[in-house]
Amino acid sequence: MTRYFLIILITFLLSNQSLAKNINIQENISLIFKCELEKKIIKNSDYNYQVFLAKDLDKKELNKFEIESLQPDTLHIKGLSSFLSAVKLDVKVVNKDVVLFKRVDKGSSYSESGIIDRKTGELVHEVTKNIKSENSEKDITFYSCSKLREKV
User: Fold this and answer.
1) d(CA 41, CA 88)
2) d(Cα 67, Cα 80) in Å, to the nearest integer?
3) What is the chain's Cα-based Rg?
4) Are 92 and 23 in contact (CB under 8 A)?
5) pLDDT-based confidence at 8, cuts 50/70/90?
6) Is 113 exposed, middle or buried (0-12, 13-18, 19+ CB in 10 A)?
7) Contact by Cβ (8 Å): 90, 75
């Protein structure tokens, strides 16, 4: 459990650090992962950061989660959500340890972000709805991923 909170803390720290420099692609990579759902934390009008384990949820895995980056500023994320796959990301950070990404819609009312530890395969995916509202909603999903293919 402490490990997950550490990952969330690192995500927020990297997000804040990367806002000053939204694009920091240090490596050309092509990765494909298979990810198993571990748990999901939901914050909305019904739940206040309630934790649901994988066995309690319908969605169980990501069969093909792809990351491709090219220096100096190209990052493509496929398989996590159509929102992240559709267009350019706002925040793109790729280094030897992590891949961090974020996209906010044009109205700044919806965002998705994620971070994956390239060594351990831990993936955190956060979806925020109604950002500007007092009743914003969050879904934070944790996955354990294994590499199917890596080409550096």
Assistant:
1) 27
2) 10
3) 15
4) yes
5) low
6) buried
7) no
pLDDT of res. 10 = 57
Tell me what percent of the residues of the chain surpass a pLDDT of 70.
86
pLDDT in tens, 29-70: 999 999 999 999 999 999 999 999 999 888 778 889 999 999
pTM, full prediction: 0.83
* CB distance 48 to 41 below 8 Å: no
Instruction: Please give the DSSP secondary-structure letter assigned to residue 33.
Output: E
DSSP class per residue in 81-118: -HHHHHS--SEEEE-SSEEEEEEE-TTSSEEEEEEEET
User: Is 39 within 8 Å of 142 (Cβ atoms)?
Assistant: yes
Task: Please name which of 148, 149, 137, 143 lies closest in space to residue 112, comparing C-alpha atoms.
Answer: 137
* Measured distance CA(88)–CA(66) in Å, rounded: 15
Residue 89's Cα: distance from chain center in Å?
A: 12
pLDDT tens digits, one per residue of 114-147: 999 999 999 999 999 999 888 899 999 999 999 9
Alpha-helix residue ranges (DSSP H) falling in 1-152:
2-20, 82-86
Tokens of 86: 């559709």
User: In the 8-state DSSP scheme, what is residue 54?
Assistant: G
